[in-house]
Amino acid sequence: MKKSLLTLILVLISITASAQLYKSHDWEENQEFYELNTSELKEPSVAIKEKYLIQYYQPVLGRSFKLFETKHSIIRINTEKGIKSHNRVYIPMRNVKRVIDIKARVTQSNGDVKYLDKNNIKELENVKNYGGFKIFAIEGLTKDSQLEFIYTLENKTTSLGSIVIQKEYFVKEAVVIIRKPRALKYRVKGYNGFPNMQTEKVDGNKEALITTVTNVKGMTDESNASPSANRMKVLYQVAVGIPSDSQMWRGLENNIRSKYISIQPNKHRSLVNHYKKFAENKPKGNSEEIITNICEYITSSYNIIRTHSEELSQLKHIFKNKQATEQGIIRLYTCLLNSEQIDYELVLTSNRFNHKFDSNFFSNSNLQTALIYFIEEKKYIEPDHVNTRLNFAPWETIGNYGVFINAEGRRFKQIEAPNAKDNMIKRDYVFTLDTDNVLATVNCKQQNTGYRATSGRGAYKYFKTRDLNEFKTFTGASGIEDVDFKNFEINNEALSLSANNTPLEINYTYQAESLIDEINEDFMLNFGKVIGTQNELYQESERINPIELRSLIEYKYTFSIPIPEGYEVKGLDDTKINRNVIINNDTACKFVSDYSIENNIITINVTEGYYKLNMDLKHYEDYKSVVNAAYDFSKKSILFKKL
Amino acid sequence: MVLTSFFCYSQNLDEYNATYPEDDVITLSLNKHISITKSKSSLSIKEIVNRKDFYLTNKRLTHATESVNYNTFNTIKNITAFTENNISDKITKSFVRDFNDEDVLVRGVFYNDQKKKSFSFPNVNKGSITHLSYEKTINDPHFLPSFLISDNVPIEKAEVSISFPNDVDVAFTTFNLENIDTNFEEIKDSDITTYKWTLKSIPKINRNYDFSPIYYIPQIIVHIKSYTINGESFPVLSNTSDLYSWYRSLIRNINNTDQSELKNKSLELIKGIESEEEKIKKIYYFVQNEINYIAFEDGLNGFIPRDAKNIYVNKYGDCKDMANLLNQMLHYAGINSYLTWIGTRKKPYSYTDVPTPITDNHMITAVKINDNYTFLDATAKYLGYGFPSPSIQGKEALIGLSETEFKIIKVPEVPASQNTSTIFSELELSNTTLIGNHKVELTGFEKLHMHHKLERKDNDDISFLESALKFGKKRTHIKDIKYKNLELADDTLLIEFSSETERYIKKIENNIYLKPHLDFNLLSEIVKNEEKDFDKKINHKYKKSFITKLNISGDYADITIPENSNFNHPYFNFKIQYKLSQDSKILEIEKHITINTLKIEVIDIEDWNHFIKALNKANKQSIVLTHL
User: Fold this and answer.
1) pLDDT tens column, B399-418
2) Which of A620, B212, B291, B477 shows a CA-CA span of 20 to 30 A to B347?
3) Mutate which of A217, A481, A511, A537 to disrupt the B interface (most B C-beta within 10 Å)?
4) CATH code, domain with A136
5) Into how many domains does chain A fold?
6) Does the structure's ipTM exceed the value 0.95?
7) What pLDDT was estimated at residue A205?
């Protein structure tokens, strides 16, 4: 009897051992020092191989599933920059139940090997409430060396995951293996060129999904683009009898509804009464005013706690402490909206610069941002933002899709971008020229709407008590190094005015000697400089990512410049610019400027507009010429020649 | 008592709003008390802190989330925090129940032992008063906390004090109290002495400092000089000798593993080299090259260099590790070298005024050659031999000569003439395109900074030289770049390149307007607004020269060149000279800019602004070529 029990245990151990893929994966005893070609040697670093093993595992004696994740990298280091990019390793422990192993070594071209001393692995227990990290510096790393590290973690079991294989550096070969026991099903979806995964036998005679991708270029960080979202990656779902996407969205919908939407205000009378007292003397003529009252009440009475707290997700405690977690604050909004019988939808979406929402593949990446949408007003609030008011959707979500959930059901809908006419910067400049003292005085009446009004209001609120000069400079005179403000006033600064897109008005007057250059008895007026520092794309290397803008926007400038007595103006034709990008007969973006002279006053009109959020790579050169036209305009000057 | 005080504050809300119209929160009172008592064989030290904040508006509720730092040398005990509100004349208290322990990430430091207890006051609204109190136990008498009395909100009243038995000798030094209403009292009874400072109306930290805020904020630094227990006297930090003696005790047991591998490497490096200076250079550049700087600040280990041989093998270390490795290797090479403690320019203190560990934050190696000390900072990769690193110029170096001997020497400021950037350019016009061929020579810190920029450069960064040299326009296409003398041992880094700038000129009727100055150094350096109230920091002294030859092809009826210009000041100046050849075919332009100080004092700021404006104006001057 004893013997048979022992045999059984051995068999079990044996099965268990062979079933755990990570145990059969290790580095080569004698590490090969890989050769690089000429172009690879010019890179700061090159990954020879990066391997990701995701293994769902069910112990024979256990019912619950375990999840092991192994990361194995072999990276050649060519330069000091390469050393600095790779000589520190941070392993997040947030979802880790157990560290199985961490090891690293550095191989020199002469075969010398330095192994990581595991005593030098440090531990951070809680970083910004995102959990702990294991950190270590790579020992023995030099230029022309080869780094290799491999670690295996037992993570908390989850059915959703993602692997981004495209890095900032060139990866010669990336291997992804997802393995699971028979009882589990899996589904994967690749993005941005990630190839289909194949079912193959792996060590232990088990099946797994496998893909090998070769020569993955490092992603370039480019402006007016979404390089993070464009990285090659795969998302996966692994579960028992994997439900369809539709079932998973339904599960989410039910969950959201029960936790956030079905809150009954009559169970929270103190809270509702407190709000009502706050709002008793405020206008409540329509839903827009009521939503504004709720936003003002919450943002001026409650503090958002950016950490986990079950208690501060519950309305009773939230009201008592005037504190709420990011989840709790949503409940606060929905409770009060329900109390006022305002129709709304709770929206879950993603930051489009990190991930494009995909209704066809349920994943956590789709659910990073929560908004509340008001159908009648066609506007949103952003509950976890300390200044939120009824407004357009945040710029990082527009153009993206989201799941919109209310008491009746759910729908997938695109989050509309406000059109350029609702997101404007309008500036009317009037110049006064003092030729005796070679001094220009500029008076500007500026109106911002849309996002620029919102950011201006937020910045004004912040800088008003800190440093108003900084606000003045970046609002009205960026790039004018010797600006001397004579007057500066701001109107319509209340945050709630975003509800009906009331323009933020900023009127100012300043002087700057740098606006005028003396040339003998003539002078050059650098009028273009007043529009501020402009982006330019002159020194771009080959563009990788298609164009993706933050918002649709229009800038409208008028300049009124008197011709001083005793002078004539020259060089005005240079101010005529007409650049545009036409896509399918529509103007995608443009820069147009022209001038006229009447009663000895020069008037220059400028319109710069961007009317499409996304443009293909093939339009990049034309787009670039529009952006650069604005930059060129900021360098424009006209000559006043002495008669 | 609490009721009375609350009633007063409420009554005074309007008054405080009038006094602090720009502020949403003020600190009503800040009390810090350090208590030193004697236990059986050592001192027992704790700091007791009490703070009350008053919310004048409800516009800055985020201030209610805060934290208290601690580390290996101190622990937090008895922390209590609550919010006091007056609701319908009834005082309520809402207590903080969750204090989260978090790691504090320090910029530029890979691993440190700083942690914090973070928490958020509940029920905060306009009129709320938050109360915070805690005790900090200080485990080592060398690390007495300083009283830094400033915050990002104004402080109405602060009381800081230290009490100690009469046979404990305590000293203090005050900084930046001149403009604060301060009262100092010394209260002495038969056993205990108390030093107490009362400060009123302390403004919030100004955002416009150019130097580190520690140069400006009111502070009282206290330190224990010595104490007596059971008749035996224990020195702590009475002067620099005590500080050095303690530092020395910390490094007594370093490098006690087998160092033969390191010794062999050192001897191998200097094989065949006769000159002492060449030996130093060889080893210094080796350490700079081979060892990567990674910062650790881990309790007392933050003061003790790790084993030299291990650093050599592991190829990384922080400043003290690299200083120790360099020092050890130099010893093997027979060089007189010394571990040296120093505070960088971030620290305003001197060892004489403040003989405590807060005075320094860095370790280097000093070598003595011909009775002169040369400072070697192995963390400053690419720094040439003979140059101190820019951040320690003018600072006191505590050179550890032996177990008991040390020397304090001021690190020299490197003169502008040794940190030079010279750009020789030949320019010519081809239609509207300006074509240029350029040669750059960089020495000293100008060379060092270019090396650092090159190290970080992306392969596809085609605007690199434009931003690194502050030279050219956005439309300038820089090509044919050649770098020469990149080796550390070379004194001058050379860069050659050519440039093309399309649509460079402005044509109006018969005239061509051409701006011949392609550099844009110092363009945005005007000191504005409140920044004028504080000294401006200069990282290093330097001289930049631009020697330009413009070839004028074609026939012109007239060529108008700008007038020569200059600005003279002992600390900053420029000079621009134009010279047109007799046949009007070549215009030679010589421009020299010199910055000859590490600090523009407030008194010189107006002059500095005039200098920048004059330079910017001179840089914009145009040459006018008038066609026949």
Assistant:
1) 999 999 999 999 999 999 99
2) B291
3) A481
4) 2.60.40.3140
5) 3
6) no
7) 65
